[in-house]
Amino acid sequence: MIEPIDTATLRDWQRQEYDFTLIDTLPGNVFAEGHLPGAINLPSDDILAQAPARLPDRDARIVVYCASTTCKRAGLSAGRLEQLGYTRIFHYEEGKRGWQAEGLSLEPDRR
Description:
Elements lengths: L1 E4 L1 H9 L5 E4 L3 H4 L8 E2 L5 H8 L6 E5 L7 H11 L4 E5 L2 H7 L10
């Protein structure tokens, strides 16, 4: 089941160091421009091929996001993860724009 998550909850999870994987589903060049703190990049187009190797625990808590409420990549990614058998998927619908609208900073790519 895919559950929505809001900015306050996501921020609390980060502060409390909950065990979860935060996934930016935008293409790599957009990820490189800045992403939510602690996020990994797994573009929506690559989820089906790469998720099993990069996210081996199908019961782990996973949060997906993209650019904003109008961006469809995170929703597509969440559905694809569900198809692959992942059981704890959360969709941060506000995305990067919502994060920044709350006065929170993006993290630069350190690759």
